[in-house]
Fold each of these.
Amino acid sequence: MGKIGIFFGTDTGTTRLVAKKIYKQLGDDLAAKPKNINRASPEELMGYDALILGTPSYGVGDLPGTAVGCMEPNWADFAPQLDGYDFSGKKVALFGLGHQERYASRFASSLIKLYQLFYGYGADIIGRWSIDGYEFEHSDAIMDGQFVGLVIDHRGQSFLTDERIETWLSQVKPLLLCQAEAA
């Protein structure tokens, strides 16, 4: 059985924390240890048939990176390396972070940029997530009335983080495992 690859971008460390929580819930038998995207190569991502990718929200709905003020390279800095790669046939589940009170007008909007990036390279994006239980004005990460991936507000609703991860994983894990086993 192939493992699920977990990659994340982070600026303050919170996305790394959530990636580790996802890994812990999946376990070492099912998932590879999470890796910061600023230490990864496209070939590493291509080595998995099932991926979980995470992003912080940074800038005004931008893909996080040094150009929008991140302290370390992030998804925007990694994205140009993906040119020429084809993610067709790969299942990709996304998670994103946001702060619904402080950034209510653009809550978790960077998640749509990660969605567009990998969708554009042919990935089969899975793991939509309900907008219920959040209070915000706007998010670009909503498609057909749902977030395009799991959204975590670890600053404002940290008491829900573990439960949300568990519920989301119960939905995406069978699809990711089916893909990883087929490889």
Amino acid sequence: MKESRGFLRLFTVFFRIGLFTFGGGLAMLPLIEKEVVDVQGWAERDEILDIFALAQSVPGAIGVNTAVFIGLRLHGFWGAVVALLGVVTPSVAIILIIAQLFSQFQSNLYVARAFSGVKAAVLGLIAAAALRAGRGAIVDRFGLLVAVVALGLSIAGIIPVFWVIILGGLAGILYHRRRGDVR
């Protein structure tokens, strides 16, 4: 009985996050962080940053991957399934509704204006998530240097994001090995 309540709570938390987040996975990060760390206490702030990093490094949307990792951590395989269903159900339902009404929405001036505001708000949410993550991840000059180089490589599109993450990890290993922090 206790585990079923845990599954219900997990589903409800991620359903709410999926329902009230516009703009994709990155826009979900501030809500996930607040809910998982501050409200539910399922992870510490430094742990959620590690989960975000892991979720970004595997294929798929970061918000969905984060939900899966948290569900897996809390309740194993079925927790991952429940969290996944929770976070994607609102989007699937909304997409199905919009697909039915798309031709009516497409030319509506008020809807177009509303979405211009929503897009700007989503950008603000992503920036806030980046700043919060940066405070926890950039603790010295080395971290700042890696972040700036990664930003530059990402903006320039020189190499795929996957390789930016791999190179960042390798740089961290080499830097800390040189300093004697890692064997």
